[in-house]
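Following up on my earlier thread - several people asked me to post the actual chain instead of describing it. Fair enough. Here it is, all 382 residues.
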Amino acid sequence: MADHPGAGASAASGTPLLRVLIAPDCYGESLTAVQAAAAISTGWHRSRPHDRLVIAPQSDGGPGFVAVLAAVVGSTGTVQRCRVSGPLDDPVDAEWFWDAASTTAYLECAQACGLALLDGPPTPGTALAAHSRGVGQLIESALSAGARRIVVGLGGSASTDGGRGLIDALGGLAAARQRLADVALIAACDVEYPLLGPWGAARVFGPQKGADAATVAVLETRLNAWATELDAAAGWQVSAASGAGAAGGIGAALLALGGTAESGADIVARHTGLAEALADTDVIVTGEGRIDQQSLHGKVIGSLCTAARARQLPVLVLAGQIDLDEPALRSAGVIAARAIADHAGSVRLALVDAANQLIGLTTVLAAQIGSGPARTPGPAAQ
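Reply from S.P.:
Thanks for posting it. Predicted structure:
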């Protein structure tokens, strides 16, 4: 977390200073959380150069989880690299963070089976074929390094295999449970959904991974059969647990291996000192690639809104696109939401020129801020 105080006192600008917490997630493949935070900071400073900006990029366990933690914990650890199987078998170079001081490994499933690793847009074929074997290989690498605690960031996966590939890579259910018996295994979840059913991995997230209706049905059938094995191995119904459906069901696999589920956003928040920052903040600025209903359940924005509501802090959201209506945003505590695509004039420009467009949008929003935290821009907009 970086603190950038304003260059002058309120008297110099004639406007009371604001303490602004800038805490975005990544914006898909366009901007990392670190890049997004820098862009928002730049844009805000252009309109309100005297405000105090606290920069604290966040992650919910999805893409960027390792990068954010490495930036925060970096002084006591190192980024490790290893070659693993990608979602469709082609080898990929994945990074994970090794905090030797605490013998903790931070992994990110998107590094091994992420949607971004597909050679083109997802299709029904890739949705059926994508697997999580590379995530198991990352866990293997962490074990070889001597990890006693392994935190696996979940989110952004191309696979919906329930973590079967991961477990196969570790030698199967029985062998994997034995190997991890003395290791604290944590599933850093980005969603709260179970493995199966109308709110499960296949039906909710399958379409985002290229699955059509017929493919979703096949994936659900596969997961039902696999859930029986996971539940039996664990001795309890892990498939119904909150977070089991994260990352195409990798959450369920980690729970079956003796792991526990935690909010990925909460894990990163602890490392970035978010609670301390919130105690000394007037307004929160956050964002991600697309705001939809899922954003309010386990994602960075949902976690920030919950924390902000307890402190009666206003939340401003800058997103690539917005798929929530004003009442939903208002009920979550978002007082203003702006889309980069609207500012840029097209989704294409918002993607290819993301940093500059986010800077410009932030400059406009900051200029609309009144003389204090209660005088913020008009209603949340799509």
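The two ends are 30 Å apart (CA to CA). That should answer part of your original question.
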